[in-house]
Amino acid sequence: MRPMKNDLLYPLTFKPVYKDYPWGGSRIPETYHRNEPDGIYAESWEISDHDDGMSVVANGALAGKTIREILEGNPQGIMGTKVAGTKFPLLIKLIDAKQKLSVQVHPNDATAAEFGGEAKTEMWYMLGDNPTQVYCGLNDGVTKEVFVQAVEDGTSGETMRAVPVEKNSAIFVRGGRVHAIDEGCFILEIQQNSNTTYRIYDWGRMGNDGSPRELHIEQAINVINWNDHDNPLVEPKPLVDTDTFQCWEVLSCEYFRLEKLAFTAPLEIPMQPTTFHALFVSEGEATISWEKESLAAPAGTSILIPAALPAYTLDGNATVLRTTIP
User: Fold this and answer.
1) pLDDT, tens digit (0-9, with 9 covering 90-100), for 193-226
2) DSSP single-letter state for residue 78
3) CB atoms within 10 A of CB 133
4) Sign of torsion, CA 59 311 123 163?
5) Which of 34, 177, 199, 213 is catalytic?
6) Smallest Cα–Cα separation from 23: which of 170, 186, 168?
7) DSSP letter at 24?
8) What is the pLDDT of residues 20-65, one digit of tens each?
9) Which residues are annotated as a binding site for Zn(2+)?
10) Domains of the chain
11) 177 part of the active site
């Protein structure tokens, strides 16, 4: 794509890329009133610059272009100066776990460089009203030898820390941390731009083709952090508290920062050239305005605000989850 000037940029929405993994349900289209046929909607890749699920612009003059095409036209204007290259650094998705996900692990930067695959540190923000749990990290006393024996015995799920979660809970999953999402979880996931998953145990489940899904035991053993016993549950930090606006920092790491914004009056937000803003409207209904244009954003809408946009305004009565580069 030819170079694109900053003044041609605007807040972007994308067509969701759905995944029909066998553990998925239908809460994503049902909760957010998306007009989709009956089926399994395990994941919705909301903003993705990945060959396994490429986002396509849904609104405005750039509609029909892939996110990769527009990034190649103006990477810094869209992503900001903190991001090198032309590839979007994150993958933002929704997850509906009707059944529990496999016991799995992803490489971190160091083990991906050594053993291959794409590094993946991620976080989960719980959207569902129902209390449930996740498995994240190894229990105290679980060594490599103990874990390998548990894998052979089909009991690796029992080696992980069970963490009760509810709406607004946030879980941090560094690359190398063994984990599994339990049934009933409804999640916004922020992650490094990766689709490398090493499946360790799948609870005896069959894939969509009726056969057991592939396991990746050797790869998993190579990338697990055996010293990882930290509590993965993170506590949001309050930043602003007024009558009409509350803001919390949910989590900040070297790859992404997530904030929660709740507002009932117009909120003007200046942009900086250093980072994009990736917004997800988790509750209520918002209107996003910029220059002389506006965009209705009901719950379930994902929007990418280019770094070069001078400012935007959020209006309505809504809760918005905002991802940036720290």
Assistant:
1) 999 999 999 988 887 888 888 999 999 999 999 9
2) H
3) 18
4) negative
5) 199
6) 186
7) B
8) 999 999 999 999 999 999 999 999 999 999 999 999 999 999 999 9
9) 106, 122, 179
10) 6-234 (2.60.120.10), 237-324 (2.60.120.10)
11) no
